Amino acid sequence: xxxxxxxxxxxxxxxxxxxxxxxxxxxxxxxxxxxxxxxxxxxxxxxxxxxxxxxxxxxxxxxxxxxxxxxxxxxxxxxxxxxxxxxxxxxxxxxxxxxxxxxxxxxxxxxxxxxxxxxxxxxxxxxxxxxxxxxxxxxxxxxxxxxxxxxxxxxxxxxxx
Length: 161
Hints:
The protein is α+β, with helices and mostly antiparallel strands and 161 residues long.
């Protein structure tokens, strides 16, 4: 580990601590997170026009609403996260072969701290909603991975290749 890298949520005595962002500049901060959901053939057979429709409605539209709600509630779910008033939370959900649903969550805020946790939470909650709405067809659904794809506007920028 590099000398200048350290855990951010630990104070000098080693106790959990919210990061003090009081002296930071307000900047536009963006983050994109991606979750991949692996669907078994019996669920994939239900895909029509890049969505799955159930008695509860459109799976992907419901996942977008749930993901947005999750992103907005991140500080309630993840200890020591700052509560943020999000400026934007958008989703791109697409079906890719073989048997994958790719969920991208894009979040933006004007603030003193980044929004990567909100993007990660949004993508994850959207994936859990896909699972919940499709589990009646099969429980062999796998939420395969969640990862930060990009973040900008803070001390360091990041982009996954």
